[in-house]
Queue: 2 jobs
Job 1
Amino acid sequence: MPQRPPLRRALGTPVAGVCLGLSRHLGYPVPLVRLAFIVLTLAGGIGLLLYCWLWVFAPTEKEPTGEAAVRGLSGPALAAYEPRPQDSPERSASSKAQRGLDTLTSSPEIMMGSVLLGLGALMLAQLLGVSIDWRIVMVPAVIIGGVGLAWSQLDHSQTALGQGAPGQRTAALWQISCGAGLVLVAMLVIAGGLVGTGELIAGTIVGAILLAGLALVLAPWFIKLYRTSQVERERAAAEAERADIAAHLHDSVLQTLAMIQKQKSDPAEVERLARSQERQLRSWLYRQNAQATGTLKDQVLSVAAELEELHSVPVEVVAVGESRRRQHEPLVAATREAILNAIRHAGPASVYIESTEAEDAVFVRDRGPGFELDAIAEDRMGVRESIIGRMKRGGGTARIRSRSSGTEVQLFMPAEAQSPENGSQGAPTQVEAERPQE
Amino acid sequence: MTHTTTQRRIVIVDDHRIFRAGLRAELGDSVEVVAEASTVDEAAQVIRHTLPEVVLLDVHMPGGTGGGGAEVVKLCRDLLEQVKFLAISVSDQATDVVSVIRAGARGYVTKTISTDELLSAIDAVAEGDAVFSPRLAGFVLDAFGTSGLAEDVRDEELDRLSAREVEVMRLIARGYTYREIASELFISIKTVETHVSKVLRKLQLSSRHELTRWAEQRRIV
């Protein structure tokens, strides 16, 4: 016998997901459950009470339960939410009727419509001479409306009241207080039917005093309960994060360490492994909030990482400011060429990116012996074509300074530079090769 | 690289024993490691006891109230005249860097630094100069803005860098040594050091909360 899924309220349903959740739990089709609730409601409101009961006591699918610790270290930190099959598979014979019933019972419009229809029927009956005490109809309706209004925030309260946007939060508070107000008014109307106005006022005051006294006694407990639950929640979150980190370390770092132990006779390979693992871990630790890639910095970083890996030479990237441009193609390509040149001929390179209002500038510096630009044969395409030429075509400039203490390639791309095909012509490219000093 | 003939007395503070041992071996006879410490409280005690010239300080370590390297510096605040702190960390996080510098450290280098560079950084810090890695210079430029003012800002104006200071920071970020910066800007090395120290002071004393807020926003590096 297959195990029953736990009773959880479903998400994305018109009211509170009680029916769908219950049907999944019991294994009956949803329309049947809904129909049962409607029939029970008509039979003196039992269905409504049951619905409210389940609304309050059954957790939603999304709500965290204390399972995170059970899942262990190497499991995923959060159970992936898998959308369940919408409904039980429908058999051909009853499928049509069932589907009809489903749409009939699941749409809020039809629910609203039938409520209005019932109201209309009552009015018609009154016109025909049947005397109806509207208090008996309206008061429960107002109570139900108020409760529904207030409870609809119940499922959002964790996000909306906790750390949601302030606008969202005030809206939720308004909704709850409006609902409470409606219920209060309805209660007073009921009480007004039983006692006179003077007594009602006196009774209200007495009730308020009693409530205040009770609140005074119980408040510390509630506050303590609230604090405890807050602490519990934080602990659960911390535990989940720890499990997440442990899982990641297990997947990446431990594997790499094992590989390093195996490769210990090959220093170059060990260095390569360590470096790539370091970069991976770093990016995971510090950049997981920054999903946006495609900024100039990200592109240069990935180019640097790729070349570093390929040639086992460290490349350090420092970036300042955010670029105003959307397209970085020529600049990144030229930077790549410059880094490649540096690590091929001179060793470690440092890259500095500075984005200002006016332009993006990239400096690629190495500490090699330097070279004379004029001494490079015309057929050596590297520098002339792929750096200087590329920047010029993209509307920017390139400058190369080479001295005995190292070479620096300077690339500048104005913020609103266009490719020459679009009209504007890039500034002339300067090539400045200085005499070696000292 | 020229080192002074007398050995610098240093203390290594790091919670990883392997790293401490590696650093000790790497530095060899060039310095005299007078003590090691692995927690905040132990570090504060050891530093008070031995009064070294330079403390090589990790940013993250257990103990104390959880403040790590920055807390060690704060605990030894009254000794900052004699004992200089050089932060050495694997972390690239701006908050780490800025917090330990603002606590009073004289410089920040990453653990991947070469031995020669580390030795000269120790020397510089011991002499009272500031040591800025390219990355730290990048942080400074990012935090204070790259524009700089045309004329020199007055000294008491802590929230902005002068044009010259921006230029020096920019060259450090580009990977220039102090000597290269000096010849690039046609000034003496001593002047470069003065500029860097001024920037360090501004970084430490600037009260503008943008600085901390900026650092918090940049969890990304």
Job 2
Amino acid sequence: MADQKQEQPMQAATSIDAIDKRNLDWFLDKGVQVLIFIGGISAIIFVLGIFVFITKEGFDFVLSRFDLAEFFTSPNWRPTSSANPTYGALALIVGTASVTGTAMIVAIPFSLGAAIYIGEFATGKTREALKILVELLAAIPSVVWGFIGLSIMNALIIDLFNVPIGLNIFNAGVILGLMAAPIMTTIAEDALKAVPDEYRAAAEAMGATRWQVIRKVVLPAAKNGLVAAVLLGVGRGFGETMAVLMATGHSVQIPDSIFDSVRALTATIAAELGETAVGSDHYGALFTLGIFLFIVTFLINLTADLVVRGIKKK
Amino acid sequence: MVEPAVNTPGAQAASGNGRNVVEIKNLSISYSGQTALEGVNLTVREGEIFGIIGPAGSGKTSFLKAINRMDLFSTAMEVKGGIRFLGRDVKDWRNVYALRSRVGVVFPLPVGLPLSVYDNVALAPRLRGVKKKADLDIIVERCLQRAALWDEVKDRLDSLGSLLSGGQQQRLTIARSLSQDPDLLMLDEFSIAVDPVTTMRIEDVLKELRKEITIILVTNLVQQARRLADRTAFFLNGECVEIGETEALFTGTVKDQRTLDYIEGRFG
């Protein structure tokens, strides 16, 4: 035994180098890996670049004029006042949050319902047709949605609810909800599709009804994907600009009811940035809103990601 | 390429000179700090069927994964100790793909790739550069015949491999492994999803292959190890309890009482 073992390294050394060599395929593999790495890392570079840019533009303002307490607690957004400009973003934050919240109340039942119907009940041509329609819905430009809010929903709300202004939280919330629903439906349906059919078969074999299978087996299994769909919808709502600008009424105030007009963070930036002098306080304040938006959307997306991962770990 | 090239170690298998294909020294495997296997020392000799038996969770599959470096797929899996394949530590192989191409693996559940039967078996030869249809035809037929599948699929080589029955897919998997022309074939509980008749056919195939290829056979069927393995190791709870000549173990010559208890079905 011992003799044999000592002999082997010599014998193996000659033949193994012929097998274990870095051939063309190996180098090709490394090269492709480098290219893919660059592609992947570029996403990070772009995100960082955007963050650096908006931070740089808002930086002077944050250092010199910025008042954290005022920003978050004062509802007075009066950047153009010549005597005493104030930069309270509370009304804008409440505006965005209330519209997004309303949008989710509209979008969650619609999108989850649609996803469950497409994924679990619809078959054949119905299913294909619905999927195409939902994707078509997602492709409608936001300005078209804003137009619907401005011209159709506005009159409808005034008539139906007997309120003086039809451009308000309710209007924007419904519009935004309908806008976010198709994307949420698509992601939620993917989550349902990822649940193995064996789960359904095993549950159905126990005599569970369709709805029992969905509620007790499919939805819990797809839970993370569904939560991620909702969170991405929230992120979409937070960042939407044009439709919200057109449908909210664009007036700075803390709303008392769902039929009050509000103004959103994004809409403020879009409407005012063109009229400010580069480098002015107003300009810096708008970029500070941008930083705030960026951080919030980042946190929402991060949460969505962690939720999906969390489910995987379990 | 149809016959193993003369200068590869595989060609010497038939002569059975007892060279060690795999040498394991003090191998430990853990997943995120949780030990799956600890302190394993063993060698797999050229041309033998080396059986590994043991209940679920004893570290058998982790052991196989460490040999052809499937641990690279999992960040949680940590391998310590020495694993020498063909005399070189697997971590020192300069081309890990070359290492994997020398080791055929058959997983518990058959994996018919979504290709035609023909393309499933021709994949590995094509990867290493065999292009001529005539050469590929010979390799495909030979591998399918050796895996005892040729007669059943020769008329439908163009149909999808994933559409074959479970037992046929498992033999297709074996044929695919053989098309790599490997030095080592590792089978991980191959009969788990296969009917008894097909199991016996595959066992006959393995008995034939023993002359040409070194085989590590992980099985949860104790009698399968007895039927096939020259030597058998018994793994239990991440420990290699005993290694011995299969016939000796099964006739009661054991160093550790636990081995006998397991073999005779008193637990596990």
